[in-house]
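Shipment paperwork, digital attachment
Item: protein structure file
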Amino acid sequence: MPNLTLADLSSEIEANVRRALAEDIGSGDITAQLIPAERLASARVITREEAVICGTAWVDAVFRQLDPRVAVHWQVQDGDKVSADQTLFRLEGPARALLSGERSALNFLQTLSAVATRCRYYADLVEGTQVKLLDTRKTLPGLRLAQKYAVTCGGCHNHRIGLFDAFLIKENHIAACGGIAQAINTAHQIGPGKPVEVEVESLEELRQALEAGADIVMLDELSLEDMREAVRLTAGRAKLEASGGINDSTLRVIAETGVDYISLGTLTKDVKAVDLSMRLVL
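Attachment content:
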């Protein structure tokens, strides 16, 4: 699937931010009202740890929606690797808006940067191989597109967006359709032009998928020996994706089998927010 870009996400970013601000501010930030409305302030946001940055457009949207008088001055951009204590951006504008937007802005930035950081780590593990690391649908509800964009900032790649843009035929689909060939043939009939991927658990199932014309075959927890044989048998007739039970210690050796893709739920699911801090100056 093609990777998401910021140009694909303008309306999504605005919607993400509207929901976040409504959730956090509700009927009004009563604590910010302690500060005179005319009071101006500046602030800077730093990272307390190394990270790969993602989410600048979401931060911009937070302060733009709160008060267009707020100026955001970035010192980094999406995809940049930063060090502990580095300043990421500075803010200038009404103090109330800076304080009201702080949490929502940092939530987006620290979460999306966490995904980008994790992805850069895994991308570095397979550097020099031809494999592409793919994300999955294991994303935070409401933030799928944002997280998938963050994946690309970390050097990994997007799989299908959801259940609508590509077929992924798994064991239960195969059983319900009466077999691999029947499922693939039906997919081609009802969704011409859409990619058809099928999950297999053996080399025999791989042969069936290839004969039926699958575009991509997911090798579910096959041994390294079987993956190498799968690459030989496929000989470029379909793309091969390794999946299931893959971790830091097995990723590189799987990449070296010659598969085209490796999908990893951990790219978006098992992430720890980057530690950020905002320091206000009145």
